[in-house]
Amino acid sequence: MTGHDQELLAAFEADQIVQHYFDQLKALVAKKSIFVQQIGLLEVASDLKRLFEEAGATVTLDDSYAAPFVMAKFTSPIPNAKTLIFYNHYDTVPADSDQPWTDDPFTLTVRDGYAYGRGVDDDKGHITARLSAVVRYLKRHEQLPVNIIFIMEGAEESASVDLDKYLQKYQKELAGADLLIWEQGIRNSQGQLEISGGNKGIVTFDVTVDSAEVDSHSSFGGVIDSAPWYLLQALSSLRGRDGQILVKGIAEQVIQPSQRELDLVETFAQRSPEGVQAAYDLSLPLLKADRASFLRNLFFEPSINIEGIQSGYQDQGVKTILPSKASAKMEVRLVPGLTPDGVLDAIRRHLIEQGFEKAIITKTLGEMSYRSDMSSPAILNLIAVAESYEGREVAVLPTSPGTGPMHTVFHSLGVPIAGFGLGHEKSRDHGGDENIRLVDYYSHIELVESFIKSYE
User: Which of 27, 196, 216, 261 is the most buried (most CB within 10 A)?
Assistant: First the structure.
């Protein structure tokens, strides 16, 4: 740990406001709020309402749709003050037995300058850090130079179900803001803060095969087909060994990045094949091993992925059957030019053309992608403030490899969007031992407070 890090850690530990809201983060992590399992959403949304009201915000908790929506307003008394929006989400992915954790994932654990827990980076930690920054500013200055609105949804990890309806409902209160700061972001492998202006979209779907009314005896395996073999062959037809999508009508629709967007990624992207290998302790070879193809795919190209496969007997011992049913959970990560329904239509046509008409596709979720060239005046101001705070150049990227509802938000509000956060390259979002560095948590608070101050 550097001397500067030690100073930040000491400041984190001594700051009463920050410690108060870090305790609130512990309470938020302890409460499961998982949309896909329909656990704890209203309870955590209610906790957020209380937390922001205690901080002086005017809060709306709207549970009209699938997941409650929380909107908290801190209003500046200055006439014609501009408005900042913080977009966050309070839902998380599960942390079940399929993932190894050193400690209970729903207990925020601090070890050696790191905090571990489900949602500590994605995304509950960002909520409490940003609220800490607002409260600290108000304590020192008594009034805000800018209106600040937090919007917090509860279905981001499930393609932001019904977020568009909430945004339409509150559009008049949100449209016209100077800037919307996105949920999260990281420091790269060089320790640079990343500021990004987009993310990939996604379409998720199930593929199911029914090959017979009942399971068959496996002695017939050489003369009849079975659901799992049929499914595996159908899925194999969708992707090449190098990861390339083999479905006609997908690559042709992709909007290619501009030269500025390519230059930003070439200059600032520090993700690398080696970094990903180390972060996840990969044992299989990488599909894109050289930096150029790795970055182009990660930021600007779609990918098709298997989330899970299920078929046949999985209990103790042996059961000599040919399973009659097989299914897979699938996804395609989308880039500009691709729509969820358009991609699924192309996959359906492909499977029929390849002779796999028995593979039935059912859409589960979908959202569009968004990309920015990062030239908005409000974004340029953010970059300048960040570089002044950091004392070094920040990494500016036109998009991130992750998925989120940026397109939905921009389409509804027309507000410039930029994302930065308190994570790092090995925060392991969605994985076991999700974590943040305490010094990054505190730095994020200070930077947000500096950005608020820039509106004075």
Answer: 196
pLDDT at 434: 97
- SS3 letters for the chain? CCHHHHHHHHHHHHCHHHHHHHHHHHHHHHCCCEHHHCECHHHHHHHHHHHHHHCCCEEEEECCCCCCEEEEEECCCCCCCCEEEEEEECCCCCCCCCCCCCCCCCCCEEECCEEECCCCCCCHHHHHHHHHHHHHHHHHHCCCCCEEEEEEECCHHHCCCCHHHHHHHCHHHHCCCCEEECCCCEECCCCCEEEECCEEEEEEEEEEEECCCCCEEHHHCCCCCCHHHHHHHHHHCCECCCCCECCCCCHHHCCCCCHHHHHHHHHHCCCCHHHHHHHHCCCCCCCCCCHHHHHHHHHHCCEEEEEEEEECCCCCCCCCEECCEEEEEEEEEECCCCCHHHHHHHHHHHHHHCCCCCCEEEEEEEECCECCCCCCHHHHHHHHHHHHHHCCCCEEECCEEEECCHHHHHHHHCCCEEECCCEECCCCCCCCCCEEEHHHHHHHHHHHHHHHHCCC
Regions of the chain with pLDDT less than 70: none
Backbone angles phi, psi at 282, to 5 degrees: -70, 140
State how far the Cα of 12 lies from the Cα of 20, in Å rounded to an integer.
11
Q: Residue 5 burial (CB < 10 Å; 0-12/13-18/19+)? A: middle
How far is the C-alpha of 65 from the C-alpha of 160, rounded, in Å?
11
What is the predicted pLDDT for the residue at 225? 95
Q: What is the pLDDT of residue 77?
A: 97
The predicted structure's pLDDT at residue 402 = 83
Ordered by start, the domain boundaries in the chain are 3-198+370-453, 201-254+301-367
Query: Which CATH number is 3-198+370-453 given?
Result: 3.40.630.10
Report residue 289: phi and psi, to 5°.
-95, -20
Rounded Cα–Cα distance for residues 245 and 192 (Å): 33
Asked if 153 and 163 touch (Cβ cutoff 8 Å), the reply is yes
Angle at 11 between CA 9 and CA 16, to 5 degrees: 120
Tokens of 375: 């030239």
pLDDT for res 278: 85
Assign domain 201-254+301-367 to a CATH class: alpha beta
pLDDT at position 377 is 96
Q: What pLDDT score does 2 carry? A: 87
